Amino acid sequence: MSFAELGLAHTLLAAISDQGYTEPTEIQAKAIPVILSGCDVTACAQTGTGKTAGFALPILQRLIPGANTSASPAKHPVRALILTPTRELAAQVYESFILYGKNLPLRCTVVYGGVNIGPQQQILKDGVEILVATPGRLLDLVEQKNIHLGQVETLVLDEADRMLDMGFLPDIRKILSLLPSSRQSLLFSATFNDEITKLSNTLLNHPQRIEIAPRSATADLIEQSAWLVSSENKQNLLIALISKLNLQQVLIFAKTRQGANRLEGRLNRAQLPTQIIHGDKTQQARMEALELFKKGQSRILVATDIAARGLDIQELPCVINYELPSSAEDYVHRIGRTGRAGASGLAISLVAPEEAKLLDEIEKLIKRKIDKHNPDEILNATMFETEKNLPRTVKRSEPKQDIKNPYLGKNYPAYMACSDFQTDLEIPWLLQAQHSKVPEMKRTISTSVSTFRTPTKANNEIAALLRKPVKPYQTEQSNSSELIPG
């Protein structure tokens, strides 16, 4: 089936063609004709299937008869209202309307909190037919009499389940009371649950239900894996995975804002360019971080679940769950940032022992087992490749006494804890020290000696030694290198 067979106007077909699309996705093919007929709709499709275009295109089509080029604000009342739970999703929905409606004399804008309300007020004063908004900012504008919603013909609740999770139901009810009763209402979401069904039955008029995939579905082309690792060693494994897998663009989810801040700092110190978005960041900072990541100017984006819904990053190759979400359904949303529109993707989860129950719940929801991996597979390989690639001018001493890695439960040569290894990888048992003879390997001790948690004599001796920078020293008595205080 082609877009032309859906009965869309030539102006819309031209805009679709400019974006490189030739055939509608399943949700678009099913939703567009129903919306064009004027029926209310509840639609569910897994993330990345094109559901935004599934409502944007028919809305634009239905608005064409009233489109005009008049300068009078009265000729441009709000006729379509799209509500989203987050600023990021609102901005992306707005971009979709701009792209598909570029050949039409229709005005569109987006309003959300976290930015100056003044410019938004001025745009609304001039009149717009299509308004994308977050509930809180919309009500602020209504209370200040900057907007009138009495001529809305179509309402869209996008990511409705997320809006319920975020406590927006009272705001939604207030907004609905301001709209004409004779309107078309569309509810779009990546998941359906009992609360969404109840909301749909209450607010919509005999809606037609369109469901493309069950709420537990994850894209088949997403390769999912779980690495079983202690919480203390997650950062080390994360850096090793990024290096070993040569990940050039990766979205990393942290559970809390504080944890995201710590992780962003740690990755930047490891020379991995990282941006961050979460609720404590200003909207401008969040938009700039997202734009840098999309353009490839930043290799890594660390985010809390505020970014889990609606973000459309073309060909994002990898998503990493640094911490598992509390809700199994949020896992589906998170990894849905990759493997979009038929592309393949990689989803990696770092799972601490205390998160084992969360992993079980995720596997039950998605009805599949996730491949499990031991961190030794990456950490050991990274360590020995580093040793193999050392410059020949650096000689290694034979280990006099082994030291036990308290996290992996294995013994490694003592010198491996005293790092003139040529690497940015920081792990508790591979400390980075100054190396005076090889400039490119100069390091400072950046991991506390307190990370040695086994009270062995070898640990104590090495810990005492590494309280100062160390360097290799060639003894006169032998050809071996000794590590001595610098």
Any idea what the CATH superfamily of the largest domain is called? Answer: P-loop containing nucleotide triphosphate hydrolases
Rounded to the nearest angstrom, the distance between the terminal CA atoms is 72 Å
The CATH architecture of the largest domain comes to: 3-Layer(aba) Sandwich
Assign an overall shape: globular
Overall pLDDT, averaged?
78
- How many strands, which pairing sense, and closed or not: the largest β-sheet? 7 strands, parallel
- Structural category is alpha/beta
Give the strand line-up of the largest sheet. Answer: 3-4-2-5-6-1-7
In the residues, how many domains can be counted? 3
User: How much is the radius of gyration in Å?
Assistant: 28 Å
**CATH fold node name of the largest domain:** Rossmann fold
Q: Counting H and I runs of at least 4 residues, what is the number of helices?
A: 16
Helix content: 25-40%
Can you walk through the features of this model?
With 486 residues, the protein is an alpha/beta fold. The protein has three domains: 3-211, Rossmann fold, CATH 3.40.50.300; 222-373, P-loop containing nucleotide triphosphate hydrolases (Rossmann fold); 389-485, no CATH class. Helix content is 34%, strand content 18%. The chain is built from 16 helices and 20 strands. The chain has helices at 10-18, 26-36, 51-63, 87-100, 117-126, 135-143, 160-165, 169-176, 194-203, 234-244, 257-269, 283-294, 328-335, 356-366, 376-388, 457-465, and strands at 41-44, 80-83, 108-111, 130-133, 154-158, 184-189, 208-211, 222-228, 250-253, 274-277, 300-303, 318-321, 345-351, 371-373, 402-405, 410-413, 418-419, 431-432, 470-474, 481-485. The strands form five sheets. It has a seven-stranded parallel β-sheet, sandwiched between helices. Strands 10-11-9-12-13-8-14 form a seven-stranded parallel β-sheet, sandwiched between helices. A two-stranded antiparallel ribbon has the order 15-16. Helix 6 (135-143) packs across helix 8. The longest helix is centred in the N-terminal third of the chain and has 14 residues, at 87-100. The N and C termini lie far apart (72 Å). Mean pLDDT is 78; it is low at 383-486.
